[in-house]
Amino acid sequence: MLKRLLVIGVLLSFCVQPVLAARDKTGAIDHPLLQRYGLSWIVHYQTDSVPDHAMALGPMKKVEGVIAPELSIRLQGRLTSITYRIPDGHGAADVFDHFLAQLEQQNSEMLFKCSSRQCGSSNQWANNMFNVAELYGIDRSQSYLAARVGDAHVALYIVKRGNRRVYAHIDIVQPEQQSADSIANDLHQQGFSWLAVDLSSPAKLAEGVKPLIEYLLQNNKDRIVLAGYMAAVQGQSLMDMILASQANADRVAQLLLEAGVEQDRIETAGVGPLIPSMEQRSSPGVWVQQY
Fold this sequence. Notes:
The chain is α+β, with helices and mostly antiparallel strands. Helices cover about 30% and strands about 30% of the residues. β10 (about 225-230), α6 (about 240-260) and β11 form a beta-alpha-beta unit.
């Protein structure tokens, strides 16, 4: 009887071992924007505030002896990095399609996408871009995309290693709650700051403008330009879009005046859709810069 129990215990240990091995790293969770591929588990997880994060918008290429993305954007905000180990027997392409479908359902804006050797060296993605050694795999098996979902930027990288294991890595950068200090930091580091305002109602707009009011009252010598933006609308003339974006900037300016900011410290402008493609957004917005 004892011998039989020992045998059962050994067999159970083999059954339990894979389940234990597939547990998430302690404290790791899925990001609300993207749900994991079925039965995968998290092997690396980190979330932190980042003042200057590079997100690739092009393949890895060697330029003047340095291998780096052909094009990238610099982001600041809250970075969440998650690396998943995919269960054996599942292909890298299926995993990529799983995450891509979620992004498409959320009407994301695709900024860049590549696959196989078009992406460049997997070694460079793993060790220079993401700093996750497990992502160094077979070049022809890799896929990458960068997208914008609302005010969040998403980078997704999928690869199969030589041992046939598949890994998925996600970087998501979201703006942190805007404050007078964050606006000051934006103006100092990049010369402008997108305002976290919702133009859909007067109440939401007034709430979103409060950090800018606080900043201007604290820095009572600063003069600013409020620039309105809106995405291109098919069938609408450029002048109409410029006038509409000007009106949004004027709405923000009016709230500043009502809060006691002097009129000679504020200028407004409307640019319609006339900003570089990497800054374009799907919804109207207003940014501030000093002059």
